[in-house]
Amino acid sequence: MSLRVSKNVVVIGGGLAGLSAALYLARAGRMVTLFERRSTLGGRAATHRRSGFRFNLGPHAWFRGGAGSRVLRELGVPVSGGVPKRSGRAIYRGAQHALPTTVAGLLTTSLLSLRAKREAAALMIRLRFLDARRLAGLSLQEWIDGQTTDEALRQVIAAIIRLTTYTHAPRQQSATAAIAQLQMAARRGVLFVHDGWQRIVDALHSAAVGAGVNFVTSARVVRVVHNGAVEGIEIGGLEEDATTDTYSMTLEEALRAYRGARLNADTVVMAVDPATATSLLDPEDQLPDWWPAITPVQIACLDVAVESMPQPRATFALGIDRPLYYAAHSAYAQLAPKGGALIHVARYLPPVGTGTHSERDSGEQELEMMLDGLQPGWRERLVHSRFLPRMTVSNILLRPGDDGGGRAATRVNGIRNLYVAGDWVGDEGMMSDAALSSAMAAARAVIADNP
Ligand SMILES: Cc1cc2nc3c(=O)[nH]c(=O)nc-3n(C[C@H](O)[C@H](O)[C@H](O)COP(=O)(O)OP(=O)(O)OC[C@H]3O[C@@H](n4cnc5c(N)ncnc54)[C@H](O)[C@@H]3O)c2cc1C
After folding, report:
1. The pTM is what?
2. DSSP string for residues in 373-425
3. Ligand 1 contact via 200 beta carbon (within 6 Å)
């Protein structure tokens, strides 16, 4: 069974990248159909409602100065939320100290010696003017080692960069990418988004519907069909029902009925992870060998809703000698019913294939213990909690050798009118910034190649 839609673009994946590429292309006059394998849109930016609380998938902070902000501004999609304070607590060898992320924190912290404080102050100033590109080829650890010999300060620097990059891999991580991310985050800070990131997803979705994008959810694309140029896609799932009357159906209904069917398409944008993108192509397609094998960056998350916070002032903490994160996002964004609080605790995991077994398999217990230290008595006020042992924050770890690239190009080599978008594509930003920036680049490439 073959359906035909003329002059069309198929977008595979309904996360931030797929939604923004679809919106941009529809506004440019293309007929766009977006396929999402799940029943709901949003991918990793989805927010789930539980007992009136809004649970993002782990801690999500919107970088106000990042490429994603620029893209959403261009698309006319607003992002609103609260700006969290940078002050908080540092947890080092089991004890709490002031976090030296502000001038007051640096002056008062019991974590650093006077000498280390002076070094930290000088480093803060140096960082403002440092051209991150000059660190090309260096690992983050090599860069940190060059800044100070003070062990506590080294660990503080690593912890702050872990916070802004979500990456716990100083020896494998590119110093250029990490420092550029730190500088961007330090300049404009972050937002905790009101109602959760689903609000961004919903705003992109309604703008896309307004621009004429067709959405087909619960529809997994299983293959991109091509003969050197894109010809269409195949949708997996149920067998076709030969008795179905397609003439009275909407496109969506027809596609549901004809799962396993082929849909002709002039152009395809794959806004999915690299392993899925690879699986949609034939094994003989000449992709770079690293495409499916790139290392994801992951964290373990404990998301907790409580009736009220036993310690309302404890809104932010970072592990210094252990890669732990804690923040009460509801202290800044509307995520909880009146009086309630939504708290995210997380452990940054070492890259797949590195680290010890216990480092990679962080238990819920460790995160609960962190919460015990910061919010004693939280268990008695618990409304709902969710443990996500291994979430992929980014599909790619940016390594030192990758400074000039390392990520996939927007155009898929050797297959005309096939494009990719996502956090593992392009050359700008990290995480959602990379996803949105590459989506825009893919949409622009589609238009440039077929004006
Ligand atoms: C715990 C956690 C914390 C994070 N924190 C931050 C943060 O603080 N700041 C930040 O900027 N970013 C953060 N991120 C990253 C951010 O969520 C992602 O960068 C962004 O949501 C990725 O969007 P995407 O569209 O590229 O990918 P995804 O959201 O993964 O979307 C891909 C979509 O494709 C669909 N799909 C896959 N295969 C198929 C198929 N065969 N057919 C049809 N559909 C398919 C999937 O179901 C999914 O909906 C975090 C992520 C996580 C997990």
Report:
1. 0.94
2. HHSTTGGGGEEEEEEEEEEEEES----GGGTT--SBPSBPTTSBTEEE-STTB
3. no
